[in-house]
Write a structure and sequence with these properties.
Elements: E1 2-12, E2 15-27, E3 32-36, H1 43-50, E4 59-67, E5 70-71, H2 77-86, E6 88-91, H3 106-109, H4 114-123, H5 140-153, E7 158-162, H6 170-185, E8 189-194, H7 197-203, E9 206-211, E10 214-217
Parallel strand pairs: 3-8, 3-9, 6-7, 7-8
Antiparallel strand pairs: 1-2, 1-4, 4-5, 9-10
Length: 218
């Protein structure tokens, strides 16, 4: 379980400006949590705060964020890296730039079960040779599908997704929705920030909206 109770502020010349106030927000395993909000409302800021991916030189967090009873705000960089390696997965909003531009995509899938990778590729209507491409050779939709496959096949209890359907066509969206349900059946917690109301209607078990710098039940 993740419990978040914190404020995050932008710091400029020693002056703090509140970006988000999160009160006792709970993420439970086996559930899909959807967070809605307009552009600039703070959805990505929320995700990066909960996963400690925010820029410490520009932002300040006050409060607690506990992941499996560990307060990650007070942890050092090595402990955060361990959590990201074993517990947390993150699908970024920009799928192509999520990959190293000078390495073939296959590098990211080398240590995964080959049969499972091929099954996921087939479900997303991707050829196996897509793994031989460099990121700049991928379309946005191809890169997004590969990011989803990678995150879902890696070990991890919590998967955070930033606009995961923005590059997907309707067929790929349907595959994504089915995979999300399968992931929660395995006991994983999925947190999706989006402007896509279709995700809310298809997948959400818990739905929130960021308005006026606060997270509120939708």
């Amino acid at each position: 379980m993740i419990v978040a109770d914190f404020n995050i502020s932008l710091v400029n010349n020693g002056v703090k400006t509140l970006l988000l106030k999160i009160d006792n927000f709970v993420i439970e395993k086996g559930k899909i949590t959807v967070i809605l909000g307009k552009n600039g409302s703070g959805k990505t800021t929320f995700l990066k705060s909960v996963t400690r991916l925010h820029d410490d030189s520009k932002c300040s967090i006050e409060g607690t964020i506990t992941i499996n009873n560990v307060d990650i705000i007070s942890q050092n960089y090595q402990k955060i890296r361990e959590l990201r390696s074993n517990v947390i997965r993150y699908i970024f909003q920009d799928p192509i730039n999520s990959f190293d531009p000078v390495k073939k995509v296959r590098r990211y899938f080398a240590n995964l079960n080959k049969n499972e990778v091929n099954q996921f590729l087939e479900r997303f209507n991707l050829e196996q040779n897509v793994l031989e491409k460099y990121p700049h050779e991928l379309s946005g939709g191809m890169a997004q599908r590969l990011n989803i496959i990678h995150a879902f096949l890696l070990p991890g209890q919590y998967i955070f997704m930033d606009e995961p359907t923005s590059f997907l066509d309707s067929e790929s969206k349907n595959v994504f929705y089915s995979l999300c349900e399968e992931q929660t059946d395995m006991g994983k917690a999925l947190v999706i920030v989006t402007q896509d109301d279709d995700i809310k209607s298809r997948n959400a078990e818990c739905c929130f909206e960021i308005t006026d710098k606060k997270l509120q039940v939708k």
